[in-house]
Design a protein that fits this description.
Elements (H helix, E strand, L loop, with lengths): L1 H11 L4 H10 L18 H7 L10 H27 L7 H31 L4 H10 L3 H7 L11 H14 L4 H16 L24 H8 L6 H8 L12 H8 L4 H19 L1
Helix pairs in contact: 2-3, 4-5, 4-6, 5-9, 6-7, 12-13
Length: 285
């Protein structure tokens, strides 16, 4: 606690020893090596003098902070790859569905890592760092291919190495089962083709459906049953067939029946009406 307070007081106190050290370095002649500190920073007398009043101009050097961003990027790439191998190469049996799920999850994390560095590259350019300087920094850290892709806004999906594929085969032989990666490989390659078209310029990772997931298969029987009308009850069937309550009087006369069967036949309709009138007279007696 006391050390933390001491550092805070030292940082904000006027004319602390750091300020005096910078002020002393700035007094050296312009062509003197004594103007540089151990980190190669050069100080100007006028700027350091203004710092006594809290008006010191601090030069932003994105090149230094960008190196830390590359370190974070490399760590994120390793962690993304581990998401795949740790989920699929535990030693026990694994299904093609689980392999594809792990591949999708690893690429989702990988996309986030690449987009983060892409945004850092944009910020570094705004602060004055040139594209050539970023290229040099990333090439020195073994990330030239990553730079070439990110500067164009492209995403490179996870590539399953030959060594990892061999591990799947070895585990399958040890367990005496078929190699599950062979069943999943075609799907993984198709997913990779889709992800290659996804840019890192926008925060968008597609919602990819695993074709091995049985829950996405349509319930054809259930869908068909939902479209069919409900079956009639036994009582209704009996009523319609006349087996329970005898013949059912529909109260439909002959004229109406004829009109329904032959709607365009006017002569037949009149004959049916006359026949119907005769029938009614006979019933009335």
């Amino acid at each position: 606690m006391s050390k933390g307070i001491g550092h805070l007081v030292e940082a904000v106190a006027p004319l602390n020893w750091k300020q005096m050290e910078r002020l002393g370095l700035s007094i050296y002649p312009v062509d003197s090596l004594g103007r540089y500190d151990e980190r190669g920073n050069e100080y100007q007398f006028g700027n350091e003098l203004a710092g006594i009043a809290g008006m010191r101009r601090v030069e932003v050097k994105p090149e230094k902070s960008f190196n830390y961003k590359i370190t974070d990027y490399k760590k994120g790439i390793r962690n993304s790859r581990n998401l795949f191998t740790s989920a699929t190469l535990k030693g026990g049996p694994i299904t093609p569905e689980a392999i594809v799920d792990a591949y999708i999850n690893a690429n989702r994390a990988l996309y986030g890592v690449n987009r983060s560095l892409y945004q850092d590259m944009e910020a570094a350019q705004l602060l004055g760092m040139s594209t050539d300087a970023m290229d040099t920094n990333m090439e020195n850290r073994g990330e030239r291919r990553a730079f070439d892709a990110l500067i164009e806004g492209d995403f490179r999906p996870l590539k399953i190495s030959r060594d990892v594929k061999d591990l799947f085969e070895i585990r399958a032989q040890e367990l005496g089962i078929a190699n599950p990666f062979e069943a999943a490989q075609d799907v993984i390659e198709r997913i990779a083709d889709v992800l290659e078209a996804v840019p890192v310029t926008a925060d968008f990772f597609p919602d990819i459906i695993n074709p091995f997931d049985t829950n996405i298969l349509p319930d054809l029987v259930g869908a068909l049953n939902n479209q069919l009308p409900p079956l009639p009850s036994n009582n209704l069937l009996a009523a319609n067939t006349g087996t329970q309550y005898g013949n059912v009087n529909t109260n439909v006369n002959v004229a109406d029946q004829y009109a329904a069967l032959f709607p365009g036949d006017a002569t037949g309709k009149l004959a049916a009406q006359k026949r119907n009138q005769t029938t009614n007279k006979n019933l009335l007696g």
